[in-house]
Amino acid sequence: MIEHGPGMPWAVAHATAGDLARPLPAERTTPDAAIGRILAVPLRAAVAVPAFDTAAMDGYAITGPGPWRVVGRRLAGPGEPVDPLLGGTAIEIGTGAAVPPTTEAVLPYEDSTRHGDLVSGEPRRPHIRRTGEDLRPGDLLADAGRPVTATMAAAAVQAGVEELHTHRPPAVTLFVTGDEVITSGQPGPGQVRDSFTGLVSAVTARAGGHLLRSTRLPDDPAALADALGRPGAEVVVVSGSSSAGAADHLHRVLTALDATWHVRGVACRPGHPQGLAELPGGRWVVSLPGNPYAGLVAALTLLEPLLAALAGRAAAPPVTAVVTGEARLYAAGVRIVPVTGTRIRPGARPGSLHTAAAADSLAVLSAAWRSGDPAPRLVLP
Ligand SMILES: Nc1nc2c(c(=O)[nH]1)N[C@H]1C(S)=C(S)[C@@H](COP(=O)(O)OP(=O)(O)OC[C@H]3O[C@@H](n4cnc5c(N)ncnc54)[C@H](O)[C@@H]3O)O[C@H]1N2
Ligand code: MOO
After folding, report:
1. Could you tell me the pTM of the whole model?
2. Residue 191 covered by a domain
3. Closest-CA residue to 266 (of 368, 196, 314, 336)
């Protein structure tokens, strides 16, 4: 059962979830498969960029004083190296083609005049991208700990990198408890439709993990114990069953499984009965209160920082920004309210998501907060 008293201060709970877990081991993947993951080792160029002396314009590769006699043509594409250019000669060249050794400049078509096989003009700039002038093998592209973006993956490919070393993304399984919860169709009398699976999936993906599956469980301690005891994902999320009711078995089951509690109740409204525990063997259990808005608060307070840490992201305190408006503050902890821009959206209740649906973030208001003061922000998924 949830401990009596207000519970762990919200900021301590949030920081604890981000500090507890070490990043999962690194894996090698293609650059594209690494997008969204976190670099486990620095990313360095494998080859020079450009890899060869390259024409930067369409025109003529020239050397020596003009006019130049055009002795050949080279367009971008594979091919044996061409012979060095002799003084007073030129070859017609395409952007991206390897320039012949000894080329002094590429004369763009628009700066040149051609009569028969003679070309003349005034080279104003070399228009040659020299081997390695952007990157040399071993140059640093990104430090360990950086998230791999699509741009970074493309830069890695350009620098000849075939594999990136990134932390394995944490896998999550969600157990949706509650005899009253249905996962499809319109609820009948006494039933509610599951609103956790989509939210947990989105928060998980944003933190760098992936939701393996969501399974509904009845309010039955044996079913819950069996589900938690089975090997599987690194992180098990349980929605509902977090509180004091006759059907709320999670705390008893975790005690029976010899779990260690790291967070057991948080001094916040809503979301008070949330928790974070560790099973023998190292799997994590995150307990989300069944009230959907309270569960969302818990997903952003405990699940997201835990997953981010497992995915290899450095823990960071939440961004703080000014909040204006009115809220009923909670004397023994924080009140967590939906906010659009700086403005509080009034009327959020633990069981309902519609107020948060119209907001862009949640603001964490201390008992001392006054309109216009900054407060930590949790961006809504
Ligand atoms: N005597 C006490 N009662 C309650 C306390 C308390 O401290 N003492 N805490 C209240 C608070 S705060 C919350 S939050 C809830 C937490 O409840 P549980 O986590 O045990 O969840 P349930 O009782 O199963 O459900 C609560 C509520 O949420 C609805 N629900 C559950 N799962 C889903 C789902 N997947 N999708 C949509 N809605 C869901 C469920 O039908 C209930 O209405 O306990 C208070 N009680
Ligand atoms: O804190 Mo419950 O988490 O109010 O709805």
Report:
1. 0.90
2. yes
3. 336
Instruction: Examine residue 49 and state whether it is found in any structural domain, yes or no.
Output: no
Q: Are residues 160 and 239 in the same domain?
A: no
Could you tell which of 272, 302, 334, 364 is best to mutate to test the pocket of ligand 2, judged by most ligand atoms within 8 Å of the CB? 272
Ligand 1, residue 242: give the atom nearest the CA.
19
For residue 144, the CA-to-ligand 1 centroid distance in Å is: 41
Looking at 310, 342, 360, the residue that finishes a domain is: 310
Q: Which domain holds residue 102?
A: 54-129
353: CA distance to ligand 2 center in Å? Answer: 13
**Mean pLDDT for back-to-back runs of 10 residues, the chain (381 residues):** 74 97 97 97 98 96 96 89 91 96 97 96 96 98 97 98 98 97 96 98 97 96 94 95 85 95 97 97 96 98 98 92 98 98 97 97 98 98 97
Q: Give yes or no: residues 114 and 197 share one domain.
A: no
**ipTM computed for the complex:** 0.98
Q: Using the mean position of ligand 2's atoms as its centre, give its distance from the Cα of residue 249 in Å.
A: 17
